[in-house]
Amino acid sequence: MDAGCNRGAAHARLWIALWLLPAIVGCSLSRPSTVWYPPHSPSPAHKESGYVASAEADYSAGIAADEAGDPAAIDYYYAAATGAWPLHVANATVPGDAGSELYRAAVRKLLDAAARFGRFDSTRGITLGDGQQVPVRYFGFLWEPADFRSMLPVGSYASRELTHRYASSGVGVEYVVLTGDVPRRPFTGSKQPLAATAVLEPDSAPTAGGFSLNFYDPSHTAATDTGLPLARDLTAPIAYAATQDTSAWIEDFLDPADNDAGASLRMTVPYQPGTRPLTRLP
């Protein structure tokens, strides 16, 4: 009799605890466990001579034009990035190198300004003020240019759930690319994050300006088309996705009928004929 009462009381306490759990933890259930910080764009250091001085002058002019709402900022950022390219190649793996960081900042500003002023097209490239086209090319992606709907430069991030960061230094600027709101491929989700590295580099098929904007899939290649080591961050898309997630899944567990969204499996890359999602081991 006493044992039965004790079991009944234990069960009652368990259900009360589960019922009160959302109230106890409160809004912590809706907070993501990962934080994401955009990269910091350095202020020009105003070196006295050489490539850095010229690139910094263009970078400063680009910021001034950008603040004034002048699309000429695109041309200035392009000039700053191409001017700093030799410094970036020489010191891409040196932490905190001023010339290399100037290149990265100029590329980030260039892509951001080109998108805001409607001068970036994912298939044609960037249009400069004089009508010159900076071509865009893609290397190693299973996704198509039309899937590149928005781009987020990778800064720093922290997560209680990610114990390792798979990244390496090299040329280029690391991005998280998001696909569109409506999936264009079967079994893929909306706003699927994927890793990409943007490199504004001398064009292998020279154009009038001599540079092209090349996007590399860092999960398929560790080097540029000319063999330079590529900057890569393969963990960034996972970290960004985690910032959009919360721990509210426990509410669905406690009250599954309260969520109308159907559970499903999604692929993180487009389907490739001849591949299997799972392989049975012998």
Structure summarized in a few sentences:
The protein is of the alpha+beta class and 282 residues long.
Folded structure, characterized:
The chain is of the alpha+beta class and 282 residues long. The chain has one domain (34-243). The chain contains six helices and twelve strands. The strands form four sheets. It has a five-stranded mixed sheet. The chain has a three-stranded antiparallel sheet with strand order 2-3-4. The radius of gyration is 24 Å and the shape is globular.
Stretches with pLDDT under 50, minimum 5 residues = 9-30
Whole-number average pLDDT? 80
Number of E strands: 12
Give the class from helix and strand content and strand pairing.
Answer: alpha+beta
Helix count? 6
Q: How many strands, what sense, and barrel or not for the largest sheet? A: 5 strands, mixed
Number of domains: 1
Strand content: 15-25%
| Alpha carbon gyration radius | 24 Å
Order of helices and strands: HEHHHEEEEEEEEEEEHH
Q: Percent of residues in helical segments?
A: 25-40%
Label this structure with key terms:
alpha+beta, 282 residues, three-stranded antiparallel beta sheet, five-stranded mixed beta sheet, 12 strands, 6 helices
